[in-house]
Structure formats: structure tokens, C-alpha cells
Model the fold of this input.
Amino acid sequence: MISAQDLSAAELAALLAFHADAGVEWLLSDLPIDQRAQFAAERQAREALPVAAKAAVQTTSERERPQRAAPPPPRPALPIAAIPDENAVMEARFAAESARTLAELKTAIEAFNGCNLKTSARSTVFSDGNPESGIMVIGPMPSGEDDREGMPFSGRAGQLLDRMLAAIGLSRETTYLTNILPWRPPGDRQPSLPEAAICRPFVERHIELVSPRVVLLLGNYGARFFFGGNETINSLRGQWREIGVGNSTYKALASYHPQDLLAAPATKALAWQDLLTFSGSLNG
Done:
């Protein structure tokens, strides 16, 4: 068995992250304790105590116990303050529209407390890459790796995206990466409609400030978010469409998210077709 003293700081951090993802919240003891056997032994000892001794112990305990005043009545529970969804959307829209630069938008998102997703997330995941590239890649929401690293498209999915971009002559330095949601939903669940509505002003302002020539939307959720409707990525992918943000429209193409390709490798051929379509527009 490897001792914690034999691990480096990076290995310890990785081990703690693994336990956190597995749902471990408490580290109780280095050695296992049989709580059932301990409880049975204590119960047997109590039953073996003579009745008279029990009474004497109880009488002495009651005599030595200080007299306490009756506790005050419990205070009524105060309601937890919450921002109604419609007010939160208005506050998000005001905060987003007030941002004149990407740095101001990042600060506004980090300071915003009107979305409950922020309370369970470790990081506010904003962006990566070059905002001057004219090429914007938008995913749905941060993954667990993104949440830990504070960077979009981290981990295995991010590595696969790097290879996908490299296949058409792009990289993180020649694109700009972000997500629709800046905070990871608990358990990677789909965001609720109110949560999505609250986050919409931020991602739309993000697009306005970057003003990309083309947008690559990755994943089923992202395609539905911007294109509308209930179609799946299988029918939405590979087709150039326009998305309206504010008073402008942007040329966008949807394709599979790298996580989809890891789960279903057979879709890589379709994703490659989408990348070729996307690349062809860049060279046109």
C-alpha cells in the first residue's frame, strides 16, 4: 500500500480530485472500524450492570447535573433569499450589456450571483484562445475537467478537439473557445430553462464582443440553443445557418461535441465531413 508521504503534491491533488468525483466527502480513519461490533459490546456491558448499580449511577448523575433554565423557544426560520428567475434574467442582461470589453464581461460574469449553477461549481469557465481570430468555437457547458482547470475543453475531450482543429490547420491559438454556460451543472445534467435563460445574455454578449466571421457549435444542446426547435444534432449538423444576436447575424455550423465522439467513435466520419465543410468556408 502506497503511503501519502510517498506521493508528490501533484499526485496528492489528483488523488483528492478522483475521490471528490467519486462522491467521497469525509476521510474518517486510516484503519477500518467495525461499528456494529463496537455497539454490540457496549450494549452487552450495559446489560451486565446490576439493576441497583444502574439506579445508583442514574441517581448520582441526576443529583450532580446542574439545574438549567428552560431553553428559549426556537426562532422562526427565516426564508432563504432568492432572486426570481425573471429578475435574474434582467440583472444578467444589464450586467452583460454594460460590458464593453471581454475583460469587463469576464468580471461581470464572475461577480454575478443570480444563477444557482454558480453555487455548486468550482470555477467560472470563461474562454481560451485568440479572440481576434474571427473563428469562435462554442460548446454547451463546462465538463468536470473544465471546472477543475477553469478552462474550456480540458481533459480527453479537449485533447480530441485539439486534434480535430489541427486536422484542418487550426489550433487554440488561431481560434477562440468558450461555452454557453460559464458554470458546470451538478452531475453534468442539462440546465433548466430558467438557468439557460439567465446565462443567455452573457453568451450572446460574448459573441457580440468577439464578432466572429464564423461560429462552430459543438453538441446537441448548443445547436438547439441557437437554432431553436427540438431536432437532434444528427439533423442539425453540417449545415450552415445564421444565428441572430442583437442587431447582427453570424454564420454558424453545428457538429458533434468531442465527448460525443469519445462515446460513439462511429460518428467521427460525420464529424470529419463537418470539419471539411467548416474549413472550406474559412478558405473561401
Q: What stands out?
A: Confidence is low (pLDDT under 50) at residues 76-81. The longest strand covers residues 248-255. The first helix runs from residue 9 to 21. The beta strands are 127-129, 135-139, 176-179, 214-218, 241-245, 248-255.
